[in-house]
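Troubleshooting log. The previous structure file for this entry was overwritten by mistake, so regenerating from the original sequence record. Sequence copied from the archived sheet and checked twice against the printout by T.R.
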Amino acid sequence: MATKRFGPTQDAGVAVIEKEAAGTIEPASLGVTGHVGNYEKGVPGTLIQALTQEEMTAKVGGRIPESDAPAAGQDFFSLGRGAGFMNFVRVTDGSEVKATLELLSREGPVRSPVIRVDGKSGGRWAGRLQEFVDEYVAVTETTLDSGRAMLADEFKDALVTLDALPGKSFKVLSNDSAGILTFAADVTLATDISNSATPADLLYNVLLVNLDTQVAEVLVEDGTDNPTTEFKLSVFEDGVLVRLFDNLSMDPNAANYFVPSINDDGSNEYIEVTDLNQGEVTAAKRPANFFRSESRTLTALTLTTDIADHVDNSVPGAKSSIIEALGARIIRDTVTLTNTAAGAKSAGTVLINTNAFDPALQSLGTIEIINNAFDAGDLVTINGVDFEEGVDWSAGASLILSADALVAAINNSLDPLINGIVTADNAGGTSPIVTITAVAFGTSGDAITLAETDGATDNFTLSGANLAGGFAGDNVLVNGEQFFFGAGLDVEPGASVTEAALNFANAINARAGLQSLVFAANVAGLVTITAITAGVAGDAFTLTEDDGASDNFTLSGGTLTGGVAQTWSYSSSAMPFLSGIVTSGVAFAALNDFAFGLTVQGVGVLNFALADTIVIEVRPLPVNGLIGGGVFPDAADSDVVFEIISNTANSISVRTGSDMTLLASAGDPYIVTAPVGLAGGYDGLASLIDQNFIDAYNASNSPFNELFGINVGLVKLATPGVTTPAIQKAGSEYANGRNYEYRHEIPENITTEVAAFNFMNDQIGKSDMSTVVWPSFAFITNPDGAGLVSRALVGQIQGREALVAKDNDGYHKAAAGVDVTLPGIVRLPTGDRELNGEFLNPRGINRIVKKDGNFVIWGDRMFTNDTSFKFKHTRETMSHFENIFRENFDFIVFALNNDNAQERLKTTFDAFFLPEFAKGSIVGEDAQDAARVKIDSENNTPATQADGDLFAEVDVAIVETVERLIITVSKQGIFDRAA
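Regenerated output below.
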């Protein structure tokens, strides 16, 4: 800090001058450790820091079979007990791929992608799910040539099934980039196919599924504060909720816009998102796990759904609907239909000649109650259904009230002989006469019977034995659907023939039974009825008329005519080897178990033109992938959710005891909230070479360079489980250049002292900053199952070193001896024999020994030729001091180079070494003796000052360690005892 003056310079008054103070040296972190290795997550080639094992798991993942590095990190935290912290550099071959998931909107009927969710880093950790279907090129007993390019080992652990071998599956051990899948040595694939019933069937399926412990999932729900316009997104890793982002907006101008809310969250180590939405932002553009604008069917416990969205890409604007026919194991696909023959739609006409319609009539009959004194068994019978007084209905206090009761009994009856066949009325409760009316128009109602049975007195008078007066009037049947003309009937006559024809066309288009078959249009009283779907099938649609007293209609014929078949070519994106011809209106069966079958059904009057396309996005539900999630059968009602217990590709079943029909009906929009996993992640480990690891130790751009400037002191480096000499030498050279320490590892198959030394001496070479413990590997209890597994010990050792440094506030205490145990070791690869320390110790190879039942680190040596730093703790202490000094003296740079600067600098050193002397890391008569600091005119002359140099010479007496206790014992002589 420069001298500061406060107050007047030339004016009268008081001036205060603040002189430069001595600087301070901040103690650096202890136990800082860095590992280079293969991890399941994390951005490769970057510095990833973790203070706890939980943070490590979030950032680089857990144990993996391909590498000891993750387990070494866990060992460090376990045995370090909170001392120090870890720095990781993930190594891949550069081909890693991020797992991904596309979330679609809540629009209908065609949904659009609105959010892409990617794993924060590449790898299978976020989801490896992939599936494809193809026809193989060739097979051998243990291989299948898929005919597809793929990443090396992209489908390792996938299951392969073949149509020719139903009921069998084969696990992929590996695959090359040319798509050759390799199976176990005992597989006889070629023989099995040759002996099968369909050896010429080449169809096969490859399915790589997500594991419960290797997947990131997202759950989309309505926002808490604004459930109709915002959403929340929960993130799960390995089934555990790790992040919750609530009240997110799709609006890029909103403060809670989802992209920065998720991507800029410093605690989010799991996903990153991309906005895919195009166009206006609306509530319907919010994402959903699964959404449909309507359900197909709905029962108390089951909801079925369509699985396809389709877009008609036709220039004229023709539309279609798709009737689905799924394969047994339908997969995600994009199916494109291309029009190869436009075809023609059947048509027919109904000309209305006159507006003087004879209206249809309903058959009628009456039952008059003439006496209220009923006898037992008095009843009336309507179309064979008895209504007995006192049993089916009860007389009232008056004839009118009795008629009311009889009317109610008739209208409330569920007997199919009268329910929906007749209705009863007594003039609104003002008459004892009950009028029975046939529901249907026409003479068919005249056949409905009326009868009575009286006891001692006559209680009823009937108008006759049957209903009568039915008259069909003027009506037209369109494919069996009847339309009656007349005021208050199906077709209002209107004021003119043209108006009647318009009303007729509108009635046809509104009739549910015809909406998928025909479309009607009126021009000056001529109603043209056109089949919606092109093709000869429409020729079979019938037209008939029934005129009253006059001739009102002229039909072009008894059927629609002129239909010509419309055809489409079928193209599958997922299975390009499939092909077929689809005929509109005719069912097209799925071409295999995995394919999408369909019927193209027209919508509206416009026809498709040649080369028009229909693109169908096939999105099946993940079979049983929604279990535990919830379904809202009415998406508008977000208060009631039903738990999903199973699901197929197009149906959802909920827990027994539920009744979804109480809240929704078939055709309502529904939404599913269930965690959905990312897919397609790839680790990028299949093509690793030494250089991938060596690059992490590049002096100019190593990620560990970022540690400089944050006062971490000594950094201890390692490449856990990697014993390749070139990689270890790169680590050692980097440590030399940075004044860090590199811990070497001797291969686990080396089990003799001479071989261990020869490996280090001949293949690695000595270095000032290298240390090694042998054996470097040991057998531990398998944390993932039964038995023992071999494990690199570097994580355990460095964890213990960090703990010793923390407990002693420095590196001056050797991290060795009976107190520095490695409790995870069950046995050593060298067996139970005692290792020869007389050979190993002077050669700088520390060892693992068993003392009092515990395996401990025995030795405090560096693997170096520098005899002044043969002991590891002295090298570590000195390097720690030197790294601290490198980062703590910026305050003196550009200061005045004078006696004051020298004095301040010396004071700073003295202040630093005083606590070091107090804790015993340095030794002497006093602190100044233990750390002799020379900064004076002898080593700072006018010449050195002129060059801009300020010299400080520091001689430190680092405490030594007891490597041997030497006890001299001799037998006393007789005179010794006498004395």
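The chain has 16 helices and 59 strands. Archived copy saved in two places this time.
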